[in-house]
Specification:
By secondary structure, the chain is an alpha/beta fold. The chain contains 8 helices and 6 strands; from the N terminus they run βααβαβαααβααββ. A hairpin with a 4-residue loop joins strand 5 and strand 6. Helix 2 crosses helix 3, helix 4 crosses helix 5 and helix 6 packs across helix 7.
Length: 205
Amino acid sequence: MKETVLFLTRHGQTEWNLQKRMQGHQNSALTTLGEQQAEWLRERLEGENLGAIYSSTSPRALHTAQILRGNRSLPIQQQASLMEINMGIWEGMNTDQIEQEYPLQYTHFFTRPDLFIPLAPGETYSQLEQRVTPTIERIINDNEGHEVLIVTHRMTLKVIMAHFLNKSLQELGELPDILSTALCKVTLTDNNTTINLYGDTSHYQ
């Protein structure tokens, strides 16, 4: 296998991020700062020879991907399987309210993902892992020897990085948070997976 490089990021800040509301499969627009964060990352990635760009189908991720693409003539390949975890009835709710009404589930959501039981319709972390991991494997196989950009979401990206770090869902809660447009970089060869960056925000200005 030739060296394959994945650049993975979370979308820029959104209106609901500012309002501390859970998004999941729902959506809110990027803020002015969210667009600016994407511009900063676009500048950082300018010298990279990207061979493909993939994005979650959520408008906030797509908008981020469009900014990151810059002047490249690459299509943005939309993947529903890269969407955020489905948070069920929490979507649109304020995190303070959720923490008050569902204290145990809220704690599990962030610190013990393996124990998290969603409120219908929602997804478990195991279900998220089962939908996103095959997509990542397919992207790697389809783009061997190339540099690839993947735009996704906070918890989805943590699950992807846990996969590369060989961490269990129980250990997922111990991984550092991933901020808006924070950059992860993974280099893959035949017998090696190297995590070059995890949640790096050195492009913030």
